[in-house]
Design goal:
Length: about 230
């Protein structure tokens, strides 16, 4: 009789596509941080504490340009408010029988890509498991922090001889999320995605990136609630 993997190990295995995407982007962040004048330990600390992908690059730009720490902090909080919706949305899809005892811990790992992977598993009929969420989140988190450490200790000039690679790394994170989004795409979800995308683009052009992300997120969430 074939034995299935434990949920935690299954979550770790499911995190591999995310980890493969996270490591090179985090490496690029570590390089960028040391290039901007931060120490390697500073760069690793940012990934350990913030753990927010594109927001960390924004934090580098704000802090290295002399922006006050409070301004940088509030900007990053506003940019990442969407994460507050990931846990409730995931639990709603998991159903009322899903356990929430350790949600305070595994919810830390709910990045865009981890949320997309978890939501996709539920859409494919997999049963929700907190152990699976721990494995999924831990694999992605370790890849991000270790990638940052390798890039930071490699130094600010590590990618100077590879301009094409340096440019390509910036596209990997949105490409990874797009791939996860397409894996769970269905006809019923098209209106929600279309509204969120259109509002995001329009608000970004009119108001800026942070406002565009927030308004797009809210518009998509509102459309999803209306359609239910």
């Amino acid at each position: 009789m074939t034995r299935s993997r434990p949920p935690f190990l299954d979550g770790l295995m499911a995190s591999l596509p995310i980890a493969l995407g996270y490591f090179p982007i985090a490496f690029s962040f570590g390089v960028a941080a040391t290039r901007a004048g931060f120490t390697a330990l500073d760069a690793v600390a940012l990934s350990l504490v913030i753990y927010a992908g594109a927001s960390q690059f924004l934090a580098l730009a704000l802090l290295s340009s002399g922006a006050p720490v409070l301004v940088a902090a509030f900007t990053l909080i506003a940019m990442n408010l969407r994460h507050l919706l990931y846990g409730p949305a995931l639990m709603r899809e998991a159903g009322p029988e899903a356990t929430r005892r350790h949600a305070w811990a595994w919810a830390w790992g709910l990045t865009d890509e981890v949320f997309g992977q978890a939501l996709g598993a539920l859409a494919r009929g997999h049963r929700f498991s907190e152990a699976h969420m721990f494995g999924l989140g831990l694999g992605a988190y370790v890849a991000w922090v270790s990638g940052t450490a390798v890039g930071a200790f490699a130094g600010g000039g590590a990618l100077e001889g590879w301009p094409a690679l340096n440019a390509g790394l910036g596209f990997m994170l949105p490409a990874l999320f797009l791939a996860l989004l397409l894996s769970i795409l269905s006809r019923a979800q098209l209106p929600v995605i279309a509204v969120a995308g259109l509002v995001t683009v329009a608000a970004t052009l009119a108001l800026g990136t942070t406002s565009g992300i927030l308004l797009g997120m809210l518009a998509g969430a509102a459309t999803g609630l209306v359609r239910r």
